[in-house]
Structure formats: C-alpha cells, structure tokens
Amino acid sequence: MADRVLSINPGATSTKIGYFEDDVLKLKKEFTYSYDDVQKYDTIMDQKEFRFNDIADWLKSNGIEKGSLDAAVGRGGLLPPVNAGAYIVNDEIIDCLTHRPVLEHASNLGASLARQIADEFGTPDCEAFIYDPVTADQMDDVARISGVAEIERKSIGHVLNMRAVCMKIAEEELQKPYEESNLIVAHVGGGSSASVHKQGRMIDLISDDEGLFSTERSGGLPIKEVIPMCYEHTQKEMTDLTRKQAGLVSYFGTNDARTVEEKAENGDEQAQLVLEAMAYQIAKTIGELATVLKGNVDGIIFTGGLAHSDLITRMVKERTSFLAPVYFVPGEAELLALAKGARRVITGQEEANIFHEASIESAHN
After folding, report:
1. 238: domain range?
2. Distance separating alpha carbons of residues 134 and 112, to the nearest angstrom
3. Cα Rg of the chain, angstroms
4. Is residue 278 a contact partner of residue 208, using CB atoms and an 8 Å limit?
5. What is the pLDDT of residue 191?
6. Which of 165, 186, 346, 353 has the fewest CB atoms within 10 Å, i.e. the most exposed one?
7. What pLDDT was estimated at residue 19?
8. Residue 147 located in a structural domain
C-alpha cells in the first residue's frame, strides 16, 4: 500500500494543503482568507480551530476519513535554533510555538494543525511532524560572528524550499547525493535568503536583512544611514519600512515584479536600473557564499518567485556562471518537500529529531 501523507503549509492569509501517495500529489487545496478574517483573532494560535475545520471538511468531502493517513506534516514554525530535518510534534513544540515563538508567524500553526489532523484522520501509527523550520540551524561557528559582540548572526530563511531544491538538483542534475554536493542557493520572492550547502549541511545563510533585496524587503542597508532614521521612526515603522515597504515596493509601489519588468521592457530606465540592481545583488550574494566553499562549487540554484523572470535569471546567470553551472527552479515546492521529508522518516530513510527546549537553550548559551 502507498504511503499516505498530508502536508500543511499555513500562511498569513492562506492555508495550503496537499495529499500525497508515495510522493505523488493526488489532491491539493488552498484556502484563502481576507485580512478581516484573520484580524478578528487576538493571536495567530487562536486561528487554529477555524483553519482545522476547513481542512477537515475538505478531507471528508474527498473521502479521506479516520485511518486514511500514515503521516501529517506541517510547515515548521519559528522555534529556537533547531536541527534541519524532521521533528516529531510533541507537547514541547506546541507549547513553545504557542507561548514563546521567536517571531509571530502563521507557520507557527503548522505543528498543531498536523497533530490534530493526525489524531483525527490517521492510522493508529500515524505520526505528526514538522520539517525544516525556518530557524533550522547548521551554521559553522565562524559564520555566527557578526562584528559586534552583542549580536550573533542567525540562521533564519527559506530553509524548507532551499534544502529541497538542493536535494533535487543534486539527484537530477549532478547525479550524486545531496550529502556529497557543494551547492549555493538563492531564494527570492516577497522575501529573500541565500545559503551555502556543503556535503549535506547548510553551513551559512544570508537573510533578507543582510544581503540581497527582494520585492518587499530591503536587504542589507548602509548602517550609517539607518541609525538616524531609527530616531525619526518608531520600531514598527522601521520594521515596515524595511520588510513590507522596501524592495520593488519602495521604488514602484508594487511587489509584482512582472509589472516592473513590463515597465523595463517598455523603456522605463528606472525600472531597468532597479531590476539590474536586484540581479546584481543576488549575484553578489552568490559570489560571497562561493568564498565559503573556497570556490569548490558544484552548482548554483536560483529559486522563488523571481526565478520566473527571464530578465532577472539571465542577468544573474551572466554574473555567476563562471563559478559553476546555474540551475533555475521557479517558485516553491514546499508541500512536496514536506511530504518527502515525512515519508523519509516513516520509511526509515531518516530519523526524526525530538524537540526539548531546555537542551536547545543550554546549547546556545
């Protein structure tokens, strides 16, 4: 019998779910919500019941009842720094994500939703997992030093999709295991992050407040210019300015790169310049990470929404192809990545981690 896995990816105003049999997508659904739908809840975790009910009703309408699932896997939330890979959803994970998440984010619902789905629709042996949380941390110690003793560089980024596309390119293009490959991957969409993967470990990561800018995020900024602005704006205003109103939004009032690309194609010189700068910064970040591998790079991967852009991809490739072959994986395949991760655990190919908050805190103090 096929292994049956349900993947759950909660977003700010959506819940994406996918039903897989042996890594083959059989059913898919995206529930979308208005701003008003979610704003009436005091906390993100208060949204769990209505999101669960939507999923449960949809599963039943498609003939998926009690005993139908071998695993349920949710997008990992913002836990303290954890290992990459799978974690069994236990009480400690849910308590941490409910009361002490690193940041408030809809992905914090992934663990609770997965466990409730496993309880309601799983076989007696059905397990609930999260996989590759955004705070998954395999960074080398040397990569943590920031230059200010009170500030440590942290691993926060598009870990789930970046590790998944690295495994895909290693297997399909390089034709060798991920654990034997040296890869650099840049994920650029609404947000952005880039990482370097050495022999199966993500040893450094550049987040969207350090390097490449995106459609909505600022990327790294000249700190001498930022410090005075902090005295002119509130913390929330500065956060919005750099994380919601930056990037293409700052220059053009839109986060739709297709609109800006159309302007560039019609001769808008500002649009041409900013898109070139975006590609320039993506390429520069890739080059920076190539030094981590001392130039021993098997492949470069560009993924996320911006990888759909022929203009951006062409300019990135022009600046980076001298380092290694460049591969494009547009968009994201996070539902599949979640399902594959859970299936590797239930088939014995991978061992799931157990979350204990106290041991994590002591390891990072």
Report:
1. 159-330
2. 16
3. 21
4. no
5. 86
6. 353
7. 97
8. no
Query: Which helix (H) or strand (E) is 200 found in, with range?
Result: none
For 114, half-sphere exposure in the C-beta direction (CA atoms, 13 angstrom radius) is 38
Residue 333's pLDDT is what?
A: 86
In this structure, the dihedral spanned by the alpha carbons of residues 107, 112, 118 and 120, taken in order and rounded to 10 degrees, is -120
Q: Find out whether 73 and 7 touch, Cβ atoms under 8 Å.
A: yes
Give the sheet arrangement for strand 201-206, strand by strand: 201-206, 192-198, 182-188, 299-304, 326-330
Read off the pTM. Answer: 0.86
- How many structural domains are present in the chain? 2
Residue 193: the pLDDT is: 94
pLDDT value of position 237 = 95
Same-domain pairing of 120 and 173:
no
Same domain, 359 and 260: no
CA dihedral 249, 252, 257, 259 (to 10 degrees): 140
Residues in the chain with pLDDT values less than 70: 359-365
- DSSP letter (8 states) at residue 190: S
Which tokens is 351 given?
A: 């061992």
DSSP string of 5-61, one letter each residue: EEEEEEETTEEEEEEEETTEEEEEEEEE--HHHHHTSSSSGGGHHHHHHHHHHHHHH
Pair 34, 115 in one domain: yes
CATH number at residue 53: 3.30.420.40
Q: Give the pLDDT confidence score for residue 106 in this predicted structure.
A: 86
pLDDT of residue 242: 94
Q: Are residues 281 and 217 in the same domain?
A: yes
Query: Torsion over CA of 88, 92, 95 and 96, rounded to 10 degrees?
Result: -90
Q: Nearest Cα to 186, choosing from 106, 281, 49?
A: 281
Residue 49 neighbours by CB under 8 Å, 6+ apart: none
Task: Provide the pLDDT for residue 235.
Answer: 94
Q: Are 96 and 162 in contact (CB under 8 A)?
A: no
User: Does 207 lie in the same domain as 294?
Assistant: yes
Residue 292 lies in a domain: yes
Quick count: other Cβ atoms within 10 Å of Cβ 40?
10
pLDDT value for 97? 94
